[in-house]
Amino acid sequence: MTDFILAIDQGTTSSRAIVFDGDMKVVAVGQKEFTQHYPASGWVEHDPEEIWSSVVTTVRQALRKAKLKAADIAAIGITNQRETVVVWEKETGKPIHNAIVWQDRRTAAMCQKLKKKGLEPKFAKRTGLILDPYFSGTKLAWLLDNVKDARRRAADGELLAGTIDSFLIWRLTGGKNHVTDATNASRTLVYNIARNEWDKDLLKILDIPATMLPEVKDCADDFGTTEEKLFGAAIPILGVAGDQQAATIGQACFERGMIKSTYGTACFAVLNTGEELIRSKNRLLSTIAYRLDGKTTYALEGSIFVAGAAVQWLRDGIKVIGKASDSGDLAAKADETQDVYLVPAFVGLGAPHWDPDARGAMFGLTRNTGPAEFARAALESVAFQTRDLLDAMWKDCKGMQGNTVLRVDGGMVASDWAMQRLADILDAPVDRPQILETTALGAAWLAGSKAGVWPDARAFAKKWALDCRFEPAMDGKQRTRRIKGWKDAVRRTLSST
Ligand SMILES: Nc1ncnc2c1ncn2[C@@H]1O[C@H](COP(=O)(O)OP(=O)(O)O)[C@@H](O)[C@H]1O
Ligand SMILES: O=P(O)(O)OC[C@H](O)CO
């Protein structure tokens, strides 16, 4: 039997298809960017048809590059941008509106209204999330409220809803399967993560008919089979997970207390809390890390909206670097005696502050401050924000801290300077793995293990291989002083001060 696995990684800015061989090595990659639509300030949409065609194109590309046929692929694993929601017609598979993307803030007022009614504790208790426009539930309610006839049609069973994985599976299986997995469901604001079911009360509050929602499966499960006409042979879809959960799996963070942090445009840190559903007292999210063989493993998650985006700002905004990879060299030239801070609240602040109205600020500027100090402040801001997340995690999980090691991935971890500074500020080692395609690998592992052609979790974890460990080297006094300066800068940036 063949042991090639195909991972579909449907991200926020591009779709990718990656073929892995039986040794879990990347054989070929297909990638296609697609259009971002910004119909109003704070609104972000994707055209589901463009997403769909980008996925089909990249799968064909990857198979061609790998010189493989669809019949050579044992199984498909899907991972996706989370929270982004699509509503489509059951009969035709046609979306009734563009997908509303996770970054979209149009339901801020709706969330505020629900908060005013005192409903946040109810949503938090059942879903592990907070009332923020980030999540799918209020976006779905918006679609039902604002697309002509949508509510009636949904009530009549004419419309289906789902996150991107669900929409793709519907299309891939030729409209046979309306399914999702527990990790994607856990980001919708209408899924009870303790009971592992759609929450009827919350659906009622948002006026969403349960009948339009997909069946929720384990992450390694039978999600259906692709239509033969798409790729030339039917391929079983055997793995699904939201992209940050897939990265947690790809980093083999299978044990309670293990953390991965992904540094792309934004940053998402996920702490495996095992079978225990820990409810954060520090504004982190409780979420499902994965559900395998009916057993749910939970996580605490912290999201930072600006990580690599701060490097993009150095390059495209203030133009002090020509390319992202110049940022570390420039930061290394900074004068260490200058306490310059950037609080990159370009789109508000995420966890643990959740302040949508805060805006970016710099502190400590003098006549001597130049591009190097700006570069250092941008890269350091990512380290300080990670420290804030980890501090919140350890407050929530007393006793779990142990010997923290952070496993990192994402485009920004290419910067040795940034990773060293991260270890310095965290006062903990930072491990960069050899395989940086952790998200796709996680999805591929779910499918490959379910197909029985890839190793089980224990053996997979043993294959995780280190590229470089960054050990903390900063003097303790300097660290304390810098962290104090950062906290002061954040305090002065928050919108309520
Ligand atoms: N050598 C580098 N040093 C610092 N930042 C980098 C470097 N290379 C890439 N980046 C940053 O990483 C981000 C891209 O990472 P990626 O994981 O591809 O992001 P995404 O999946 O969010 O598009 C960009 O914001 C870029 O500025
Ligand atoms: O597609 P990415 O990598 O930007 O990830 C988006 C996250 O899943 C949003 O929660």
From TrEMBL:
Keywords: ATP-binding, Glycerol metabolism, Kinase, Nucleotide-binding, Transferase. ATP binds at T12, T13, S14, T265, G308, Q312, G411. GO terms for cellular component: cytosol. Its EC number is 2.7.1.30. Glycerol binds at R82, E83, Y134, D243, Q244. Residues 261-448 form the Carbohydrate kinase FGGY C-terminal domain. GO terms for biological process: glycerol catabolic process; glycerol-3-phosphate metabolic process. NCBIfam families: glycerol_kin (TIGR01311), PRK00047.1 (NF000756). This is Glycerol kinase. The lineage of its organism: Bacteria, Pseudomonadati, Pseudomonadota, Alphaproteobacteria, Hyphomicrobiales.
